[in-house]
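Replying to the earlier thread about multi-chain prediction with a worked example.

Input:
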Amino acid sequence: MMFHKKRLVLALVGSSLATGLVINAFADSDATQADEAPYQGLVELGFPAPQEGELVHVPPTMEDLDTADIHPELKKVIRYGYELFTDTQQLRDEYVYNDMNCSSCHLGEGRQPFSAPVWAAAITLPDFRGKNQHVNNLEERIAGCFAYSMNGTPPEYGSDEMLALSAYHQWLAKGAPMYPSQPIYGRGFPAPDEPAQEPDYARGEAAYQEQCAICHRDDGSGHYENGEYVFPAPWGDGSNNWGAGLVRVDTAAGFIYNNMPLGQPRSLNEQDAWDIAYYMSSQERPQDPRYTGDVAETLERFGPTFHNRSLYGQTREHDGHVLGDHANMGEKGDVIPWNVGMPRFEQLSEE
Amino acid sequence: MNKKQWGKVSLLMSACLVSGAAFAQAQEGDAQRGQAAAATCTACHQANGGGMNIPGGESWPRLAGLDAGYIVKQLHDFKEGRRQSASMMPFANMLNDEQIADVAAYYSQMPITPAQGGESASEELLARGQQLAERGDWDAYIVSCKSCHGPGGNGAGSDFPAIASQHAGYISSQLLAWKNDERSNDPQNLMGAIAKRMSDEDIQAVSAWYATQTVSEQSDNSAGEAAQ
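Result:
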């Protein structure tokens, strides 16, 4: 018993803190911690407590999978999805052309609140997505990560890899309601409060060197040992490209504020988080796969739906460099992600 | 002096500190000279640099194959009181900067030795150790050891030492020291923050796990061959 995880049970709906919350916890038969509120540990670390009316979901773990009453073949596929999620580098040079794993950004194996927990996609999709202006399902959403965050090209819809990854997402959503009407606790990378001062490059650089460089290196190239990466690259060819969600300054600030330095979430103040995000977002990375051949034109086309929150196409003040004004696609070279710009539902739009 | 100016001064100071540290590490140690200077170390750390696991006592860490920059920093920290150890302090004090660089080079080039202290651990304890080492326990906000100490726990640069094939008694004493605020010379409290969230059983588990991990010479200590 000593090493069993603290289990959460549905009984805690009755406790005072949980009143009014919609709580989904993966209840296990050996549950012992009936009186503990979910994510209390996070609250002690400075995260907000679940609010009344929020959907609070505690995803099952891989240990829970071992004992789950589902078909053993499904367990195998979910485990494969977990392996792909935490070691996406096994798809290097086939679907992945940078140094990232899914779990580089979705910390805690995709289960962690305030670290864009991925089960949320499984219960909110299919839905309209502003980024590509049509209705996406879970597979298309995952495909987007391959094209942008992994600077690669996605496995085919319905392929073993795609099915396994979506099965892992769906497993993590076990017990959560489909199409919830409540807001989801800890969803995405929520941005910290607006800083007292406008985010600043020089301040961001100083804070980066002080807080981040020990792992991510002073040039943002990340850290490798024996050819294997330990700390991912926040910019450059090893990192996500200009079309990834994390290039939006507020999203980057949210990731940093809620998750960095690793093991010390919410230890930076809001100003530092915004400044570091601004500095990081002011560095070069592989071109957006939606690139038209001209940075200004690309910005004009995708500004309203995406780049109005990034620094793409902006001129860096200290050296006059125009961000994203290059044709460097990173390691993927001529590989074109097949999902980018793929027309959908044309017959419906004509109606 | 206003706040902004102070910020610049402290930035300048930290820049000096950083370049100072870089200089100390850049100072090439001489392994041959290091062997002579290390004569005083062998009583505890052994001639092969393997150290010794001492159940119930103070275990002596394996130094063989550790990163030279890491050893240099620890010796300076002992000398200057940033890392407390009644046993190490007098020996560190006997070494000047050049000798520190030399012994660090000497030990870093030795082949990695096996570790003790995990032999009698139960399967359950080792399983928990492996989980913490490779995946962490995010429900307790314990990130995996490998996320900083590298794949296999073989270390990452000079800041994140190798912990695979290190004696269980040494790993657990250090984690307990961090947990109890008796060690704090890690950069940015990166280890301290995690150690404080670990139960004593977690510490025991992860120490046993890494002590049972043997490290293959070819992939992880290519420098060791050069030294032979």
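Residues 3-26 of chain B form the longest helix (24 residues).

Feel free to reuse this layout for your own posts.
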